[in-house]
Specification:
mainly alpha
Length: 453
């Protein structure tokens, strides 16, 4: 077993996995910078630009089962190397995309990045459980979560610094004032600025894949670690319908991932619409609040708050902030001129800070829903986990719903879509997660039923 390895091997392995989790967050939250950037470069509407998020997150759903087969055949360590190579290939696809300014090629690059992250995350997560005492596994997972979100803070800042360093005053509004010729020349220069950073990213990822291949990170024998898997093959997906709390949990997670992506990936669009220069860096605001919320969760749960109370509180905060977003004028600067004056930028409208604060409301929803949804599933736990993973599709679908609403109303009022999402999450925290316990007496799951499935 891996957790009996010597301390130096465990430490090196932990550092390797930590680096991978940082990469997860960095690549994922580059989308927040990329969306307003491609809106300008490819001359897209807000709805069209949000297809960037769709093409990325839909890869998690489309590629989940194929990548699971890859892991089963080649092992965790080799699969992680393959994941890094696949992400590098996605980064290199940005070169022809940038040269041609063809949105379809950008979308192919995004899907490739998502596919690489799918296999990388699926392969890396088991190490956190087995690289030490299982009693401290939650601590290791929490540390990786903080690293993941911290990378989300840095990614948009790095993108803005590396890609837009020579275009400090460029915004969607400023480009509209240019002549057709000047506009095309500027957009070509903007697009070309992607090439060097993404080539460097690809090179770093390939070097990391090579180092990982020859690292002392042991490969885990998943057949031994998951000895119950064979028994669970006889458990059908149909049997999951006997657990309403899981079904409600899948819906809640779907809506949550959607709200998380909307909060992180649309803030740049709003900033660009309001004429803020370098709006690509604004996702960092959302992620900074998310890290703060994550750290609060680590301190408060379960010492002072139960998972259920924390989830309910998160949903209520999300609804309150959303109502403020819908009601506050887009030209209000009350927060930036008073409460948040210490930030040092008085030119950021209040609505930007409010959208960013959604990150705080969203921070602990994911870790709260998972244990509540998987509670008392017994032999259905593995398939329940697989269905919960597929709820990541919310990150692909919900931003498009937001974009559709923004096209018929405005980019500001479209945030109304978050209210029913948070309302359902609140329902799940208060009532939805208890439904199975209330109905278990009426729907007992016998051993014979498992056999029949």
């Amino acid at each position: 077993m891996y957790h009996h390895s010597n301390k130096s091997t465990v430490l090196i392995s932990l550092l390797i996995i930590a680096t991978l989790f940082f990469i997860f967050g960095f690549i994922t939250w580059l989308n927040g910078a990329l969306i307003p950037f491609l809106q300008i470069v490819c001359e897209l509407t807000p709805t069209e630009s949000l297809v960037v998020a769709f093409s990325f997150y839909i890869a998690y759903v489309v590629m989940a089962l194929p990548m699971a087969k890859v892991i089963e055949r080649y092992g965790l360590k080799n699969s992680m190397c393959l994941g890094l190579v696949l992400i590098a290939a996605g980064a290199l696809l940005f070169v022809p995309a940038a040269l041609s300014r063809q949105f379809a090629i950008f979308l192919c690059a995004q899907f490739t990045l998502g596919a690489g992250l799918t296999i990388l995350q699926t392969a890396a997560n088991p190490y956190l459980v087995v690289m030490g005492d299982q009693k401290t596994a939650s601590v290791r997972i929490s540390i990786m979560g903080v690293l993941n979100k911290s990378a989300g803070v840095l990614a948009p800042i790095a993108f803005t610094s590396l890609v837009l360093s020579d275009f400090a005053d460029v915004s969607a509004k400023s480009i509209e004032l240019l002549s057709v010729t000047d506009k095309n020349n500027l957009m070509s220069d903007l697009s070309a600025s992607l090439i060097m950073p993404y080539c460097c990213m690809a090179l770093v990822l390939l070097v990391m894949a090579l180092l990982l291949k020859f690292s002392p990170l042991p490969d885990i024998d998943m057949h031994n670690e998951n000895a119950q898997d064979d028994a669970q093959q006889s458990v059908s997906l149909r049997g999951l319908l006997n657990f309403p709390h899981l079904i409600f949990g899948v819906i809640a997670l779907f809506l949550y991932v959607g709200t998380e992506v909307i909060a992180g990936d649309t803030i740049g669009l709003v900033g660009s619409t309001l004429g803020l220069a370098n709006a690509t860096s604004l996702t960092s605001f959302t992620m900074a609040f998310m890290v703060a919320g994550y750290l609060c969760g680590l301190v408060l749960i379960p010492r002072l708050l139960s998972q259920e109370s924390a989830l309910a509180g998160s949903a209520i905060i999300g609804m309150i902030v959303t109502i403020f977003i819908l009601c506050i004028p887009s030209d209000s600067f009350l927060l930036s001129h008073s409460v948040l004056e210490f930030v040092g930028n008085k030119n950021i409208p209040d609505i930007i800070y409010l959208i960013a604060f959604l990150g705080f409301a969203n921070a602990i929803v994911w870790p709260a829903i998972w244990p509540m949804a998987l509670k008392e599933l017994g032999p259905y736990t593995a398939k329940g986990s697989a269905v919960l993973i597929m709820a990541i599709a919310g990150g692909a679908i919900m931003p498009l719903v937001y974009g559709g609403l923004s096209s018929v109303s405005s980019i500001f009022t479209a945030y109304a879509i978050l209210l029913p999402c948070y309302l359902f999450i609140l329902f799940y925290a208060i009532k939805g997660h208890k439904v199975a316990q209330q109905s278990s007496a009426n729907n007992p799951l016998s051993t014979q039923e498992f056999a029949n499935d």
